[in-house]
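The following record pairs a protein chain with its ligand, glutathione.
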Amino acid sequence: MAEHQLKEVKLHGSATSGFCMMVHYALKLKGIAYDYSEEDLKNKSEALLHLNPVHKKVPHLIVDGKPIAESFVILQFIDDAWQNPPYLLPQNDPFKRTKLRFWGDFVYQKLVPLTYAIRSSEGYAKKKAAEEFMAHLITMENGVREELWSEGPFVNGDEPGLLDVIMGSCYRGLRYLEDAQGVKLVEKEKTPLLCSSMDAFLELDAIKERTIYLQECMQAFKERKSKA
Ligand SMILES: N[C@@H](CCC(=O)N[C@@H](CS)C(=O)NCC(=O)O)C(=O)O
């Protein structure tokens, strides 16, 4: 029996969270069946507080009763635990695996904090944060081109991998942030490879299907709240 059929998998998440989106999409791409629990982040479930006492955040994954926290860690766990394609990290290339982890970590260290800064600042500070975001994205584009890219359309080639999942999951959120905050964050001319990866990711059937599912979860959650 395939390994993924043996495991009981449960995800606590929030349908509006890009971090949770990454985990949903990785599970879907790997063909892993799981139960999902939508969390009210203003009134977190006892299960989440008990199982994730350190961060108390979503996404939170529970596999055969064992809790795993933090999206970047969860993505790598999924790839380790279900050794079937698509591989988020190439199986036999330690150099490439490390480079993918490096640029994945770069997203968390450099890009994510700037999205918070853009949301919480005004005027010149907002403009500076947006410019810094784009400059980091260009740095990442150049790194990916030199160290990882071959034929595309994904960073790993013709199958989506770790960076595609991370960036692809954030793409809609970034476009939304641009509209809502009146800033420019992503330009195809400046970062064509990353845009190729993000566009191709959102075109995958598995991802389109999951997006519809997430929208339904969000709707059901809102209806439950309005009746409560
Ligand atoms: N570093 C964490 C960040 C997760 C995170 O910030 N989750 C937010 C939702 S997007 C959350 O749970 N917020 C509730 C809180 O901070 O109490 C990860 O990558 O999983």
